[in-house]
Amino acid sequence: MTEGNGNEFRTPKEPLLHFSDPCSTFKKPFASAKGFFFVVTASFCYKQLMSVDHFHMNRPVHLARRDVYFEQAVTLIGELVRKKEPAEQQQTAAQALFCLEEARRHGDAANQSSKTCRNSYLFQDLLETAIDNTHSIARMLRWRLAVDADDSPLDQFLDETDTGKKMGTHYRRCAAHILKGLLLVLGQAQRPVHDLQCSCLAKMAPDDKARYEKARDHFKKEAEQLP
């Protein structure tokens, strides 16, 4: 892709190393344009350069999307407490789940870079926790809607409504209980997440910081317009 907007994914430029025979083998250390030394096949050198360059080059964009969608998910999960209608709760939980999965996907991509720190990997574990809990909340709310409906399949099969009402209450309480725990975890994670973002930005070159900020502005507008 062409370079211009801060949120584009770049492909690596043509490496400065050129091999007439991609299967030839160097029997002594070979210095690349980046100062690395290889005692491997030329084709392996080329693949390694392509792989490392690709993920490191696009890391600012992946991090921007990870951060924006995680923050949007936290906002949506916080709104669940204020939602009163079950249908609104279920829709909000589904939106939060989508945002968390987007954050995880781009966090995984960013972590392919050799510049990844330990806390970035640990943050992915936090995302997994939030995803599992949000998924459980969404499922509980969905089943609550199903059993509370006038044409509930459960009521029809059992030929009575008392069990459906009890299950509706059960699903509501389960969702509220899981949400309470999730909000506790996200509240405790606020400072470590902020520190991680600051640490990642501090290690970026000026050009990468500019790309991160441009991408962040773009993705923030995108995330706020979720259906």
Please give a handful of descriptors for the protein shown.
two-stranded antiparallel ribbon, about 230 residues, mainly alpha, single chain
Please, could you describe this protein's structure?
- With 227 residues, the chain is mainly alpha-helical.
- It has one domain (58-224).
- It contains 6 helices and 2 strands; from the N terminus they run E-E-H-H-H-H-H-H.
- The protein has helices spanning 42-79, 86-110, 118-148, 153-158, 162-202, 206-224, and strands at 30-31, 37-38.
- Strand 1 and strand 2 (37-38) form a beta hairpin.
- Helix 1 packs across helix 6.
- The radius of gyration is 24 Å and the shape is elongated.
- The model is unreliable at 11-53 (pLDDT under 50).
Strand content: under 5%
Helix/strand class? mainly alpha
Question: Within the largest sheet, what's the order of strands?
Answer: 1-2
Order of helices and strands: EEHHHHHH
Give the proportion of residues in helices.
Answer: over 70%
Secondary structure layout plus pairing:
Blueprint: E1 30-31, E2 37-38, H1 42-79, H2 86-110, H3 118-148, H4 153-158, H5 162-202, H6 206-224
Antiparallel strand pairs: 1-2
